[in-house]
Amino acid sequence: METNFVSQVSDGGGQRADVIVAAAGRLFFAPGLARVSMDDLARELGMSKKTIYRHFPDKRTLLTAVLDRQFAAVERTLLAAAEDVAGQPLDIRVQRFLIAAGSELGRIGAAQLATGRGDPMLREYVEQRVDAVVYRRLDELFRDGHRQGLLPTPPELLGEITRGALERLLTSQLPHTLDWTAADLLRATVDIVLYGAIRPAHPGTDDEELGAVVPTARDDQQEVEL
User: Fold this and answer.
1) CA neighbor of 101 nearest in space, from 71, 63, 146, 69
2) Contact of 167 with 134, CB cutoff 8 Å
3) Which residues are CB-contacts of 102 (< 8 A; sequence separation ≥ 6)?
4) Among 13, 40, 96, 216, whose Cα sits 20 to 30 Å from the Cα of 163?
5) pTM over 0.85
6) What residues have CB less than 8 Å from 43, skipping those under 6 apart?
7) Would you write out the chain's pLDDT as a tens digit for each of its 226 residues?
8) Are 190 and 95 in contact (CB under 8 A)?
């Protein structure tokens, strides 16, 4: 394994820790957490494991620092995407957010990390960070649209549907099967969530007749009594 970072390691504790985190991120995320050891990292850095452990007492602590850096980059990208479309219609803001989120989560392998790779505690940590950085912002977009009367469907339902679709698409073979890019699939997902998958068969059909029917407690009770 080629060493690339030796010349960058200085006596400064903070700078050396940053170099370790950068190298760990490149190694641990590329081949998979389970197949890269601290020995591999030490060889890559050209330093002893003892030096690494002075900054990070164990692999889990180091990986947490790597994830923090990764999600900080994800958050910056999402904030920039939101700023780019500030003041635009809701569908544009949701679309831009989802495409940016999907690209960033795919880049860091968040779906794989959260569904089976690595330490169980780290998987839980990834899930928590994805929820905080991505899904809470998405939920707020849907709530905002609901408050404005743009989304009659409960925002909680839209959030769950979109969350499931995004996570599935990150590990799906559909881009290859359909010869679509992941961004194309995400755009189609936004269209389906916001506008529906079925278009009116007859021009002039009242939109209200096509709206989703959300059962209420009274509806459920009536069905039981019939």
Assistant:
1) 71
2) no
3) 166, 169, 170, 182, 183, 186
4) 216
5) no
6) 1, 3
7) 333 333 344 444 578 899 999 998 888 776 555 567 888 889 989 999 999 999 999 888 998 898 899 899 999 999 999 999 999 998 889 888 988 888 888 887 776 676 655 567 778 888 899 999 999 999 999 999 999 998 888 999 988 988 888 888 877 788 778 888 777 777 787 788 777 777 666 655 554 444 444 444 444 444 444 3
8) yes
